[in-house]
């Protein structure tokens, strides 16, 4: 499988919102209540606002067979704000490719704080991926240490 990466485009907002919602809905049910997941998903219901949020950060989109399948957003060259992959393609290297690309960009920007200071906002089920990617994680989004 070939994974291509490209910068976020404003026209990506609807499909990335759908990937975001599907990933939360299908991949976090064991760790979060329905109420928590629906509140989380609601953040992408307004496509324009969601798109503006993605545009405000460095956002990369993963493409497989011509279709977006995931995305990652780097805020302030320090923290991963979003990392979502379509549930039908998890564990295929998409998240790793996105993280690797972001690390290269941050390194090229000469951010000496990239690895030591990265602060991803994690769901319970994403912590393992970040650990495999060797990104030091200090806490999950709920503030609990891992």
Any overview of this molecule?
With 146 residues, the protein is an alpha+beta fold. The chain has a single domain, classed as Gcn5-related N-acetyltransferase (GNAT) (Aminopeptidase, 3-Layer(aba) Sandwich). The protein has a 4-stranded antiparallel β-sheet, sandwiched between helices. A hairpin with a 3-residue loop joins β3 and β4. α1 runs antiparallel to α2. The C terminus is likely disordered.
User: Roughly what is the average pLDDT, rounded to an integer?
Assistant: 80
What global shape is seen? globular
Overall tally of structural domains: 1
Looking at the structure, the CATH topology is Aminopeptidase
DSSP strand content? 15-25%
- CATH-defined superfamily: Gcn5-related N-acetyltransferase (GNAT)
- Count all strands and give the number: 4
The largest pleated sheet is described as:
4 strands, antiparallel
Q: Structural class, please? A: alpha+beta
Distance between the termini: 32 Å
**Proportion of residues in helical segments:** 25-40%
Strand order of the largest sheet: 1-2-3-4
Number of separate helices: 6
CATH architecture: 3-Layer(aba) Sandwich
Please tell me how large the radius of gyration is: 14 Å
Order of helices and strands: EHHHEEEHHH
CATH top level class name: Alpha Beta
Q: Which stretches are low in confidence, meaning pLDDT under 50 for 5 or more residues running?
A: 114-120, 127-146
